[in-house]
Write a structure and sequence with these properties.
Distance between the termini: 19 Å
Shape: globular
Helix content: over 70%
Order of helices and strands: HHHHHHHHH
Structural class: mainly alpha
Number of domains: 1
Number of helices: 9
Largest sheet: none
Radius of gyration: 19 Å
Length: about 170
């Protein structure tokens, strides 16, 4: 399969066309920047190779522990990790669940370590604040971000497929 350097180069090459396509669809510079930024993030850090100890995995630095369960759950190059449709959706869902779990653990530890300090809102108040922020988000930005994440991951998978077909074709001739 192509090296991380090749995948990174392809991700960078796709920046201008991604921005231009997003702008031609949305007519919005903001949405195009979100789409392109998400595509870059997916290409460098949120792509299909998080299911192994890869360059994408290493770029998470001290936070790569977040991906340990993912690597245990998903077999490398399975349809669930590298699938054009399911791969990104599963990673987004997995990452959201991990963030919620980590936030819950941090809140619990905060309360457990010093229950007398009430400087932070309780869980119910915090949930209300988060819900208000969630409701205020323009859904077009979420769609743009998801499309960018999908495109960054899809370009990785498509590159793998093209490389595999090319290698098999060379063996035949």
């Amino acid at each position: 399969m192509p090296s991380a350097r090749i995948h990174d180069t392809i991700t960078l090459i796709l920046v201008p066309p991604t921005f231009l396509v997003a702008f031609s669809i949305t007519g919005s510079v903001d949405l195009s920047v979100v789409t392109t930024g998400a595509m870059l993030f997916a290409g460098f850090m949120f792509g299909p190779d998080l299911d192994i100890e890869s360059k994408q995995y290493a770029r998470w630095g001290p936070f790569r522990f977040i991906w340990w369960p993912y690597q245990f759950i998903f077999r490398h190059r399975s349809r669930l990790s590298h699938g054009i449709i399911l791969g990104t959706a599963i990673r987004v869902l997995y990452f959201a669940i991990m963030l919620i779990l980590l936030a819950g653990i941090l809140l619990f530890l905060n309360q457990w370590l010093d229950p007398h300090i009430r400087a932070h809102p309780d869980l119910a108040e915090l949930s209300k604040r988060i819900w208000k922020v969630w409701q205020a988000i323009d859904r077009r930005y979420l769609v743009a971000a998801f499309f960018g994440l999908w495109w960054g991951a899809a370009s990785h998978t498509l590159t793998d497929w093209i490389h595999e077909v090319w290698t098999r074709t060379k063996r035949i001739f």
